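Residues determine shape. Take a concrete instance:
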Amino acid sequence: MAYTKPNGLHHLALSTGDMKSQIAFFTDVLGMELVALYWMHGVEGCWHGFLRLNETESVAFVNTPNNASIEPVMGVSHPGNPGESSAPGTMQHLSLNVDSMDELMEMRDRIRSRGVAVAGPIHHGFCSSIYFAGPENLALEIATSHEMEHPLGGKTWIDPEVVALAGISDEELARYMHPKAYDGDRNLPQPEASPDKPAMHFAPDAPDFTQMPDDVVTEMMSETTPPQPGE
């Protein structure tokens, strides 16, 4: 049996030490709706906020008890803008989509009407973008790929020089551009921890639930009841 790839963004989770400011910015400046604000399931002292992009996609913020006391460091935790450096694995910038150039210009005007400076549009061939900052030094972009001169696909945007800089061979490039569907077994047992594979990090006194049986994790961590009855 073949299995498909992910088909969109469910949510992108960003750390925050000021949930209210992020909610205010994303609702007022960007027009996104707050659709969830609740204690994160199974994580002591942590709460989650979700801002809707569409029926299935959201930008989420995570507030843990220690977030506000962690000092942001430009060039380490944050790049400051979409062209600067930050540590590997951190978010370099967040780009949100609109469906046309008219909508992109409307968003530029909306953001500026809230007193936030916006640069652009800048045309990239496969998309056009505007750039601005969000609370807590977020580097943000809104982009549209509607009716672009050179859309993504094929080898149009695959630069051989950059392929070589990344150490990618022709064979690897072909595999990356056309990945195989998974046609293996279902319900595989969890692989043993290995130093050459990515792994989540946990506090020294916290259990590593990636090494627990699936049914134990499901029973221990699941919580499907919302904080308020449905409307």
Notes: The radius of gyration is 21 Å. The chain has a mean pLDDT of 91.
